[in-house]
Amino acid sequence: MAQISLKQRGVGYVLVQMLLIGLILFGPQGFQLLPDSIASWAPYRQVLGIIICILGLLLSLIAALNLGKNLTPLPCPKDDAQLIEVGLYRLVRHPIYSGVLLLALGWLLIYPYALVFLYVLALFIFFELKTKREERWLLERFPAYSGYRIRVKKFIPWVY
Length: 160
Hints:
Radius of gyration: 17 Å
Largest sheet: none
Mean pLDDT: 95
Helix content: 55-70%
Number of helices: 5
CATH class of the domain at 42-151: Mainly Alpha
Structural class: mainly alpha
Number of strands: 0
Shape: elongated
């Protein structure tokens, strides 16, 4: 089998993803989305945000463990990869992305600013685009992926 370059395996997707996550965590925040009249709710909103961030992180870590030796930062599967349909992959096709999105939403609860909201929205749209490409690669590699794709939702169990 011919050697495939990092560019052909989707390293650009990884770089854009890292940029968006960096913007969410460290980028300019813009103006606050919530009015000062509900400032007394801030501690509760922040605690909820922290809980959601922790859940997102745990979801991503468990999903990475479920992948085992198949784990790669690139969207193109490894040459020796196997299709994983166990663990969190029974519930959603992209649980690592689900976890990252949960983490981003939790961060938005902690820091409810306009630009943070736009970065989180951009990350969701980006994951939509990235999964379209990633799933084409998975369909090429694994004939059983088409049935799996019909049975299992993309990001949210039984919903989406």
